[in-house]
Write a structure and sequence with these properties.
about 280 residues; mainly alpha; about 45% helix; ANK repeat; Ankyrin_rpt-contain_sf; Ankyrin repeat domain-containing protein 29 isoform X2; Ankyrin_rpt; ANKRD_45/46/60
């Protein structure tokens, strides 16, 4: 191991600015990392993409390497071309011990990729509940969206992470926060048929009516053919008589007889199957 590390000292770069220290850090070879650093390897050197040895160690979850690099002056402020940092990488892959180490060494919990994604957003996307709890307790903003308006709650709902959704709602996540396209967490969960997520959202009384994008969660559930989801939303009070921006009732979006039966069972008195008032 030592001889290979010493041989590598004569090769400053492997490819695209990748150093032997980066390779060793990525692979988690702590002995090689130690030898390279003691022989004078530049810890904070960045490859063409902006990544560093610390970034690679954090991305791969090698906490022993991360701790060692900090002992020799590794910086948490180096960014990749897309704005990535070691904290963002560790959060994206759910490496709880590494996230904890990075925060203890001054990593900025409000770091964002250039598209606006935060460490909390990336952890929510992956469903890493322990990382999410740590980030929230360390001051992460629960409602901080990406540039396209996607909030952590929205992405957790899209991915079906019901426990993450529950924790975020309890920590103050906006149940009705909409993306720039007008979709909400409930609408996305309804579209996907994630009933566990929907049940958590319904505990916080989200909007069941027509959204800014001109449709409703019930329309989305019907269109996707999710029978149990349709039943869940109707039981929560979703109105089958509401029309979307195309002037369509939920019942006009399906030929599924079971769904149509559910919708009819929730129609008010004096309404026909298309939501029109009957003559008396």
């Amino acid at each position: 191991m030592q001889s290979r590390c010493l041989l590598g000292l004569f090769l400053k770069e492997v490819d695209h600015g990748t150093t032997l220290l980066m390779v060793a850090s990525y692979a988690g070879h702590i002995d090689c990392v130690r030898e390279l650093v003691l022989q004078g390897a530049d810890i904070n050197l960045q490859r063409e993409s902006g990544t560093t040895a610390l970034f690679f160690a954090a991305q791969q979850g090698h906490n022993d390497v991360v701790r060692f690099l900090f002992g020799f002056g590794a910086s948490t402020e180096c960014r990749t071309k897309d704005g990535g940092t070691a904290l963002l990488a560790a959060s994206q892959y759910g490496h709880m011990p590494v996230v904890e180490t990075l925060l203890k060494h001054g990593a900025n919990i409000h770091d964002q990729l250039y598209d606006g994604a935060t460490a909390l957003f990336l952890a929510a996307q992956g469903g890493y509940l322990d990382v999410i709890r740590l980030l929230l307790s360390s001051g992460a903003k629960v409602n901080q969206p990406r540039q396209d308006g996607t909030a952590p709650l929205w992405i957790a709902s899209q991915m079906g992470h019901s426990e993450v959704v529950r924790v975020m709602l309890l920590r103050g996540a906006d149940r009705d926060a909409a993306r720039n396209d007008g979709t909400t967490a409930l609408l996305k969960a309804a579209n996907k048929g994630y009933n566990d997520v929907i049940e958590e959202l319904l505990k916080f009384s989200p909007t069941l009516g027509i959204l800014k994008n001109g449709t409703s969660a019930l329309h989305a559930a019907v269109l996707s053919g999710n029978i149990e989801t349709v039943a869940l939303l109707l039981e929560a009070g979703a109105d089958p008589a509401l029309r979307n921006k195309a002037n369509e009732l939920p019942a006009e979006l399906t030929k599924n007889e079971r769904i149509l039966h559910l919708l009819r069972s929730k129609e008010g008195p004096g309404k026909n199957e298309f939501g029109s008032t009957l003559d008396r």
